[in-house]
């Protein structure tokens, strides 16, 4: 059974360590805020100028004046700090973000990421993603393993315009958890009921399988 978006976010939340400053990208990454393990203290950053982002709001908690970089409504926590985007990017470019969690359209087996240009659609540009991938100490990608037509999104080489080169460390998809190595995608975990063969068929890039691969534990 493939993981849904919330399950992908919940698995990624297991990668968050105590004391980290974490940037959450648009889409699935925003859901990670809902699954930070109890007892773990982290500071979530939004690149439009916020430290101390809280869980995704329920309808009764929505405040239209509080938004993230993707213009989604968010919540703040006691002690949150709101400041200019120039200060925010000073933090990012100064390498003060420990972990960046991003969505992606494609990732190559060398860790290149393409996550901003949608074929046939007008877009304003890649925005802050280029700063995040160039400056973050650790990048984890949340994405679907395949496109709607069944084609792989984990490729030998990206076909879409590149956001960053050799920067992705780990990927969590609806089918698997993978680590990017100098030899390709190393399979770490598989979604419940998904076989190694299923993942191999869905992965165009080099897939490294060593020993028994455990199922994702949520």
Question: How would you characterize the overall build of this protein?
Answer:
The protein has one domain: Glutaconate Coenzyme A-transferase (3-Layer(aba) Sandwich), CATH 3.40.1080.10. The two termini are 13 Å apart. The relative contact order is 0.16. It has a 10-stranded mixed sheet with strand order 4-3-2-1-5-8-10-11-12-13, sandwiched between helices. A 3-stranded mixed sheet has the order 7-6-9, with no helix packed on it. It is globular and about 45 Å long. The chain has 218 residues and is α/β, with parallel strands linked by helices. Helices cover 16% and strands 24% of the residues.
Q: What is the CATH first-level class name?
A: Alpha Beta
Number of domains: 1
Separation of the first and last Cα atoms? 13 Å
Helix segment tally: 5
Q: Using DSSP, what is the number of strands? A: 13
Q: What's the main sheet like?
A: 10 strands, mixed
In short:
The chain is of the alpha/beta class and 218 residues long. The protein contains five helices and 13 strands.
Features:
ten-stranded mixed sheet; Glutaconate Coenzyme A-transferase; 218 residues; alpha/beta; 16% helix
List the helices and strands and how they pair.
Layout: H1 5-13, E1 21-24, H2 28-31, E2 43-46, E3 50-53, E4 76-82, H3 85-93, E5 99-103, E6 106-108, E7 113-114, H4 129-135, E8 139-142, E9 154-155, E10 170-172, E11 176-181, E12 184-190, H5 196-201, E13 207-208
Parallel strand pairs: 1-2, 1-5, 5-8, 6-9, 8-10, 12-13
Antiparallel strand pairs: 2-3, 3-4, 6-7, 10-11, 11-12
